[in-house]
Amino acid sequence: MELDSVSNIINKAVNANIKNDYKDVKNIILSIKENITKNIDLFINANEIDLQNENGFKLDFKLINKILDNYSNTVPIIQDSSKSVIKDDKLYSKIYTKLGIVLVIFDGNTYTMLELILLSLLTHNTMIFTYSGYMGGTNGLLINIIQSILEKNNLNRYMFQHSVMIRSKDFFKNYKTIDKTIIIGNNDFISKYMKESTTDILVSGYKNYDIYIDSINDLEVIKNILALNLNINLYVNSNLKLDYEDIIYVNDIEEAITYINYNSSKYASAIFTTSNELASKFIREINSKNIFVNSSPTLEQKLDIDQIDLLKEKNILMPNIYKFDGKNINIKEL
User: Helices marked H in the chain — which ranges?
Assistant: First the structure.
């Protein structure tokens, strides 16, 4: 496939961003769910090709439906009327507006792409995804379906685009056009692209997990987690002998905590242990947003980026002779 130039991608995004005002985001999200369900066989085939090429993981369609259900019930705060407070005969208001064009540099995880598309729809932003090509067939199909739905709703299809080859430096040359960059991946991935960025940055280790195994009492749970083929750093006490690839053996919990805090994406970490003392130490000293004890770190799978992270907050002050509904100013009727 011939790669579109970065300048063309940016120009399409600029044009799409000019007129992407819409109100019925819930119906758009419902349409996305219907179309994914209707094209389930295409997704399975695309996913199987990625798997055959050793360039992806097996999709869990229950998780996809869970993500879609969650966002279809989310109220977009960009459409909230302004909340006003009167103080010292002044009217203080706050409104939220879209950022504009958001660049996403990520590891190719399809769930990540889907969640960010839904979040971008809620916040009326235009989004460009760039990644190495991991899950490329599956992600390409997702983007094509989303673009078709946008056109059916009289919206510009290029509100969402993907670039199957990370060209971060070329995108960063357009720093005046890109309003925010989101970097999602493991710690090394985030660090690399943070150094290159010339734009405002938001980072997340979403879908990257760290597990320390101090006991094999929950071995079946551990096996089920590893069978999901997720991005996991697995640390194991050297007294245990487990037959898994890419194990990092450590002498004790102190060494495990040091490794995890230094190397992890700080999204989710888990410990498997029979010791309450070690569990407490892990909870206190690990620097992750989500911490799990003797349970799967995949139980809480939620993108740690909120609507407000992709919106501009505007604070407004005016004399109390006006009323403001978030869009229009009028003199109050006395």
Answer: 6-18, 25-38, 40-52, 61-72, 110-123, 136-152, 168-172, 187-196, 219-226, 253-263, 276-285
Q: Residue 207 contacts by C-beta under 8 Å, 6 or more apart in sequence?
A: 107, 109, 111, 112, 184, 230, 231, 267, 301
Question: Confidence class of residue 260 from pLDDT cuts 50, 70 and 90?
Answer: very high
If we measure between CA atoms, which residue out of 80, 77, 67, 86 comes closest to residue 29?
67
d(CA 83, CA 108) in angstroms, rounded, equals 38
Q: Which is higher by pLDDT, 227 or 215?
A: 215
Task: Write down the CATH superfamily of domain 6-206+303-324.
Answer: Aldehyde Dehydrogenase; Chain A, domain 1 (3.40.605.10)
Two structure tokens written together for 204: 């997340």
Residue 56 pLDDT exceeds 60: yes
Answer for the pair 16, 102: CB distance below 8 angstroms, yes or no.
no
Residue 187: what residue type? N
For the stretch 85-119, pLDDT in tens is 666 667 667 788 899 999 999 999 999 999 999 99
